[in-house]
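Input (structure):
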């Protein structure tokens, strides 16, 4: 059985002085300064993380390019797979991000607006480099394609863009299936509803996506304890659990999380 991965993530923005800084928030809002991206990357590399994710959280919303100088500095400090996302809209953006030291690129808005970018990127750089990111939110109406039962109500999940600020009307499960068919090597599923709550991953969302595709799925948003990682692995069959604040603020270590999972029979790299 393949080992399950534990992946810390940093959300990076530009501070008032124009420098890259890590921020943490709730439901993609109320962002608070958390630390320096390069120092945090170095710390996680030493802490036993399986991979590392760097998200430029306002690049797409502001229509600017990913902060590649910071990506280069981070890449110099990590010797585990590095995924970089934010503001990637073209084949050239993919190329430049990989040249800056990323092993994979995470694409959300750019792929929704131009789905053929998935095929272009996979053909040019390999499927393993192309991670399709989805910022999902729950909708309780009749405009979706695939439905889950949540607390006795039918719910579907909508793809959003610009950091969750805008809905697209696209069903997450339908889009996940299309992204897989077009050549995505991995799916990175974020829950707007669970983000920053520390109340657990959105299990119905993660299960809906994992059941629909064979492509590896990274579950993101809502992790507040090692137990939540256990739930998303055993109840949704996610391939990786991504977390931010529980690691950023030393509530749990990556090692503690992995030992908790190992004790309960979940295969992890210790």
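Output (sequence):
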């Amino acid at each position: 059985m393949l080992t399950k991965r534990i992946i810390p993530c940093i959300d990076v923005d530009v501070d008032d002085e124009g420098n890259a800084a890590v921020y943490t928030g709730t439901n993609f809002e109320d962002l608070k300064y958390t630390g320096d991206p390069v120092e945090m990357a170095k710390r996680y590399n030493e802490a036993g993380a399986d991979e590392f994710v760097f998200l430029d959280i306002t690049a797409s919303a502001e229509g600017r390019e990913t902060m590649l100088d910071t990506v280069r500095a981070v890449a110099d400090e990590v010797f585990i797979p590095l995924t970089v996302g934010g503001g990637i809209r073209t084949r050239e953006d993919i190329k430049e991000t990989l040249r800056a030291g990323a092993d994979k690129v995470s694409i959300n808005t750019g792929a929704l607006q131009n789905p053929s970018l998935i095929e272009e990127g996979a053909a040019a750089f390999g499927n393993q480099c192309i991670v399709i990111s989805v910022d999902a939110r729950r909708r309780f109406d009749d405009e979706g394609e695939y439905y889950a039962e949540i607390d006795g109500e039918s719910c579907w999940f909508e793809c959003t863009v610009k950091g969750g600020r805008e809905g697209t009307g696209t069903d997450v499960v339908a889009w996940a299936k299309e992204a897989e068919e077009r050549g995505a090597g991995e799916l990175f599923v974020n829950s707007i509803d669970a983000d920053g709550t520390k109340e657990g991953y959105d299990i119905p969302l993660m299960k809906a996506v994992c059941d629909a595709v064979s492509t590896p799925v990274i579950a993101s948003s809502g992790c507040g304890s090692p137990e939540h990682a256990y739930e998303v692995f055993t109840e949704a069959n996610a391939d990786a659990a991504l977390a931010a604040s529980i690691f950023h603020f030393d509530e749990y270590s990556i090692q503690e999380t992995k030992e908790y999972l190992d004790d309960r029979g979940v295969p992890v790299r210790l």
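Notes: The longest strand covers residues 5-14. The mean pLDDT is 93.
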